Amino acid sequence: MKIFITLFFIGNSDSYKVRAILILFASLSYNYQLKAQSYLLDKSKNASFVSASIGSDDWAVYKTAAIGYSVNGRFDMVLAGIYESGSTAKAYTITPALSYLVVKQDKLPLSIGLFAGYGFKNFNHTKDLKNYTIKTGISLYHKIKIRNNVLLIPGLFCGQDFTKTRLDDYTNRFSTRSAGIQTTLLIKNFSITPQFSYTQLRGSLFTLQAGLILFKSEFIQPVNEL
User: Fold this and answer.
1) Phi–psi pair at 137, nearest 5 degrees
2) Which of 36, 101, 108, 138 is most solvent-facing, going by the fewest CB within 10 Å?
3) Residue 7 pLDDT class (50, 70, 90 cuts)
């Protein structure tokens, strides 16, 4: 909590304490696996998708909606919106993001993906506090065929966020690391994904995501191709 301690001693008034708490809240970037969907698709398949999720930790409740498009079952373009509602403050974040599977499960038993995104956070009660975050990370997935049109896909991910927080003349830059696990159940073109992650400063976070693949068919490989 070095950020809070530093800011607390800037001044003794209540307004300074409030400002310190707000900056701390802004610093705790919401950790989530970017809402990519290529790991659900066969190679060389294109599809659009939508998803929604809700998550919570000790700081706030998070509601996320995302839309995106997958190209060749490897490359994702995503636009996500996140609303944070906590006892300290309420904020919303807009995050465009990209994801690419450098290894697609085929001859190898897993998929490996890289992701990156940029988040801009606004606060409902003040326009003076700004937060900008660059997200980067890597993810691993393994497809398990349960039956026709049903897949179970466990995954791991870790990442690093680079954040800049600004309030009036005060600017703070820092980075945080995160890691998590998730399991996706894919039934035809509908997915449900519980996810657990841990982030420096913020701590543990549980998220439940539902997704829908659009304009897509025959997305599951035959058993002998998995």
Assistant:
1) 180, 180
2) 108
3) very low
Which amino acid type is present at position 210? Answer: A
Query: The tokens of 221 are what?
Result: 């490989």
142 token code pair: 């393994």
| Residue 51 amino acid letter | S
Structure tokens at 202: 């913020």
Dist CA 47 CA 39 (whole Å): 12
Cα-trace Rg, the chain: 19
- Domain architecture of the chain: domains with CATH: 2-225 (2.40.160.20)
CA-CA distance, 185 to 150, in Å (whole number)?
7
The token pair at 134 is 């660059």
Q: Which H, E and C letters describe 75-98, residue by residue?
A: EEEEEEEEEEEECCCEEEEEEEEE
Q: How many CB atoms lie within 10 A of CB 113?
A: 25
- Distance in angstroms (rounded) separating the CA atoms of residues 150 and 209: 17
In the predicted structure, residue 172 carries a pLDDT above the cut 90? no
Look-up: residue for tokens 């009036």?
A: 168
pLDDT in tens, 50-105: 999 999 888 889 999 999 999 999 999 999 999 988 877 788 899 999 999 999 99
d(CA 135, CA 197): 15
Among residues 131, 105, 110, the alpha carbon closest in space to that of 120 is found at 131
Tokens coding 26 = 């802004």
Q: Are 153 and 19 in contact (CB under 8 A)?
A: no
The single-letter DSSP state of residue 223 is G
